[in-house]
Amino acid sequence: MRILLNVIWLVFGGLWLALGYVVAGVICCVLIITIPFGIASFRIAAYALWPFGSTVVSKPGTRPGALIGNIIWLIFAGIWLALGHIVTACVQAITIIGIPLAVANLKMVPISLVPLGKEIVPVDQQGLYPPAPRY
């Protein structure tokens, strides 16, 4: 079932969203200081291509650099990518078949807003990571 949903996802929005992340990653890799943002963007692009069967978990430990980086990312790229997910989810939710795709799109909004300090893992390995701290 995951493969079928991933193929439908790829055709009806995943490719365009992944291209958005790739463009953001290329722009971020132009300057040396923003390369971590580019790497995070490329990871999310792979997740945006094939999301079913994967999930996002927080990396263990405190990361003050990730907090500062996430604020910078939010201002320059996160808002626009999150809006792309929300708009695509609204369009996909019009049909019954598109509802799971819309839910997956909305599930990607948090990682598009704050990608640093997160890791994308297969659902089968989700229990191997400690739970994210609640603040």
From TrEMBL:
Q: TM segments? A: 7-33, 70-103
Cellular component aspect of the GO annotation: plasma membrane
Q: Does the keyword Membrane apply?
A: yes
Q: Does the keyword Repeat apply?
A: no
Where the record annotates domain Inner membrane component, the positions are 4-53, 68-118
Which key words are in the record?
Answer: Membrane, Transmembrane, Transmembrane helix
Q: Which InterPro entries match?
A: Inner_membrane_protein, UCP028777, YccF
| Official protein name in the record | YccF domain-containing protein
Protein species of origin: Speluncibacter jeojiensis
